[in-house]
Each structure stands twice: as C-alpha cells, then as structure tokens.
Amino acid sequence: MRIPVFVLLAVLVAGCVQTPWYSKSQEDVLVTMDEFSFKSSVTEFRKGVEYTFVIKNAGKIPHEFAIAPMGVTDHAKMLLHLNVELFPPGAEVRKKFTFTQDGKFEFACHIMGHYENMMILIITVN
Structural domain boundaries of the chain? Predict the structure, then answer.
C-alpha cells in the first residue's frame, strides 16, 4: 500500500506542532507591594477564571496580601489572605486563585498602620 507524500508530510508537521503548557483561561497577574501601595498588571477580573498571582514585596518592610470585599478587615471574611511571614522585603510568592463572585474588592495589607494608610488597591470582578 502506497501512502501519498502529502499525507506523510501532514502527519510529520502535526507531530511537530506544540501545544501551550498553560490553559488559555489562566492569566498571570503581577502585583507589586511597597510602602504603602499596590501596583497590579490587572485590576479587572472575570469570575470563574483561574489567575496566577505573582506577588512581590518591593518594599523595605514586611507586608501581607489579602483579597477582600471593600472595607472588610476580618481575616475569616476575606477571599484570600497570605500572611506577613510570606512577604519579608524582596520576597515573591505565586498563588493560584479563582474569583467566584462579582463585585468590587480590594487588594489590601492589614498589618497595623498599613491599611489605615490606604495600602489598598480597588479591583473589579465581572
């Protein structure tokens, strides 16, 4: 049985095509903390999409990272809370997170004096 050359070429080319190692629904979000602010590559998020937060403490003092409904300071009511032990100066942490509800939320640092000095960034989830 003879197989046409173009069929063999198609099979060879298909075998060489690489699929991406990541899911198309996954997005990296770069978050930088310093005294007393957040900067983020994304501030509008989609519910149900898995994001990988790459959070860096570019400051000179420890910080923490939380995602919470606006004004919420109770850790039990936060969507995500990463403790200060994870964020000494220069530290970088990667954390996967999927929003499950719409609304306005904030990235916040709740170390004493930081939140009160407006170490927050308002974000939106649709």
Answer: 20-125
Whats the size of the chain, residue-wise? 126
Phi-psi region of 49 (alpha: psi -120 to 50; beta: other; left: phi over 0): beta
Average of per-residue pLDDT values in the chain: 86
CATH fit for domain 20-125, picks 1.10.3720.10, 2.60.40.420, 2.30.30.100, 1.10.357.10: 2.60.40.420
Q: Where residue 35 falls among pLDDT bands split at 50, 70, 90? A: very high
Residues with Cβ within 8 Å of 119's Cβ and at least 6 positions away in sequence, in order, are 33, 36, 37, 38, 63, 108, 109
Binning the chain into helix, strand and coil, the percentages to the nearest 5 are 15, 40, 45
